[in-house]
Amino acid sequence: MRVFAALPIPDDTRRGLTDFLSSLRRNHPDFRWVSPENLHITLAFLGELDTFGLSLVEAAVSALAADASPPAIQFLGLKTFPAKREPSVLAVEIGKGADELADLAADLESRLARAGAAAGYSFRAAPERRFTPHVTVARRGRSRLLLSPDDTDRIFSGEALLGRVCVFSSELRRRGAVYTELTGCVFTGTGDTLP
């Protein structure tokens, strides 16, 4: 199954973000919009895993949650990705807390590398590009992912305390991906992530 580790967006913040995006949804019906219940911040996309690989991921995520405290974040404006090609993703950027999220992602990758090496299991290599925390809100649909200056100048001023880290499966369907939470762990640590 296709697996990723992510931080779900809390319900109240998700509602605020959905309200913020409502006019964009009306103005750009050709975009493939992410359903509100699927909004999250990905820490690591792990690709296809077997049952053993999944158990290693679940253990690493559980240990991460036990060691780290819940990250506090603040959202910024809209951004399209990738920057060097025609954009295919519309996202809300993370301002405050972005460095903490990058540390969490690096910590998780390190834990997975150690667990994989100890068990003789090979995980998908982490991307070479710099980790940029964001919430994907739409993908390119039937038309190009173009926004007006009025759209890109909008800022979602929401804040959130991300209390959980989860392992999800991703099933690709015609109408979009369906995410299923496989494991959810509450952050209970009082310290920072490991180097």
Automatic annotation (TrEMBL):
GO terms for molecular function: 2',3'-cyclic-nucleotide 3'-phosphodiesterase activity; RNA 2',3'-cyclic 3'-phosphodiesterase activity. The keyword Hydrolase applies. It holds the Pfam family LigT_PEase. The active site is at residues 40, 134. The keyword tRNA processing does not apply. Its EC number is 3.1.4.58. Gene3D superfamilies: Cyclic phosphodiesterase (3.90.1140.10). It is an enzyme of class 3 (hydrolase). Residues 7-90 form the Phosphoesterase HXTX domain. A motif (HXTX 1) lies at residues 40-43. It catalyses: a 3'-end 2',3'-cyclophospho-ribonucleotide-RNA + H2O = a 3'-end 2'-phospho-ribonucleotide-RNA + H(+). Keywords: Hydrolase. A motif (HXTX 2) lies at residues 134-137. SUPFAM superfamilies: LigT-like (SSF55144). Belongs to the 2H phosphoesterase superfamily. ThpR family. Hydrolyzes RNA 2',3'-cyclic phosphodiester to an RNA 2'-phosphomonoester. This is RNA 2',3'-cyclic phosphodiesterase. The gene is thpR.
